[in-house]
Specification:
The protein is of the alpha/beta class. The chain has helices at 12-21, 36-51, 62-68, 87-90, 93-98, 118-129, 149-152, 168-171, 176-188, 192-196, 204-223, 231-237, 240-257, 263-280; strands at residues 28-32, 75-79, 106-111, 135-141, 156-159.
Length: 286
């Protein structure tokens, strides 16, 4: 199963836990943190762990190969990185879940599960609460608080480790310019609105990645690490008292995203909030 784990390097702790759970899998497994690729690879590893006849993904049997290729007949994957996962997407599952799996376990995986609409999540709840034998679910999301609480409360959550030396931010070339714009706006009060004012400059998917990146930069500021464009600025220009406020503001922004508010307005609100904080506190030494 080496190829399936290619993006999950450094996740030995999670893999150990998953192996322990393999004999009595939880109805709903929640994997948060890491990159989208890492979460998906671990989700596929879980599917192989539950179905490989060797009891540990071998990577060579037809089951492991089909799962790695996402062609396994007991594997269902719903991805939310391009659009929301709607109720019409999940309704056909009802009939599928009523039948026994072809082999050991049927695995239903939701990547970017924060994109499940409320009706879609509600349609899943009965299946999550009272799954028929052989059905297991996997929810993948950047952070659990992006999911509806009804989903989290029914899940067995695990948080991926951040791989040493890995800087996911550096790979997201679309997000870094927005972080630079935020830094310039907080410093000079200019530049950001020219970008957000452009038609469809920020959609909800991009905003989610921006908020996650700001959260990572705030974490770097707490640790005293430079990180990307914002960590050093936050550490030099915003008192630690406001770091907690920023963490709460990010959580609020992530919650508002689910209510179909214009993503550009949410980003502008966050930018203005921090801009005011920078100016209401005493000047800090650089």
């Amino acid at each position: 199963m080496q190829e399936t784990l290619s993006h999950a390097a450094g996740q030995k702790r999670i893999i150990t836990y998953l192996k322990r759970l393999g004999s009595t899998p939880p109805n709903v497994l929640l994997l948060e943190g890491g990159s989208r690729e890492q979460r998906e690879e671990l989700g596929l590893f879980w599917a192989a762990l539950l179905n490989c006849s060797s009891g540990d993904p071998c990577g060579d049997c037809p089951t492991c190969r089909q799962i790695g290729q996402e062609s396994y007949r007991d594997l269902y994957i719903f991805r939310g990185e391009q659009d929301t996962i709607k109720v019409d997407d999940v309704r056909p599952l009802r009939q599928v879940l009523a039948d026994k799996p072809y082999e050991a376990y049927r695995v239903v995986l939701f990547s970017e599960a924060q994109e499940l609409t409320v009706p879609a999540a509600n349609a899943l709840l009965k299946s999550l609460e009272e799954p028929l034998s052989g059905n297991v679910f996997v929810l993948l999301a950047p952070q659990r608080h992006l999911l509806l609480s009804t989903l989290v409360s029914r899940s067995c959550p695990f948080t991926l480790s951040q791989t040493v030396g890995e800087h996911a931010l550096e790979r997201d070339s679309e997000v870094v310019p927005w972080l630079e714009s935020l830094r310039c706006f907080w410093q000079n009060g200019t530049g950001l609105f020219e970008h957000t004012g452009q038609k469809k400059a920020v959609d909800r998917h991009l905003l989610g990645r921006i908020l996650l990146a700001v959260e990572r930069e705030l974490h770097n500021a707490y640790l005293g690490e430079e990180g990307g464009p914002l960590a050093g600025y936050l550490r030099r220009n915003l008192a630690p008292l406001y770091w907690t406020r920023l963490d709460m503001a990010l959580a609020k922004a992530e919650e508002i995203v689910r209510h179909q508010v214009n993503p550009a307005l949410i980003l502008e609100w966050l930018a203005l909030t921090v801009w005011r904080w920078v100016r209401e506190q005493p000047a800090r030494e650089g």
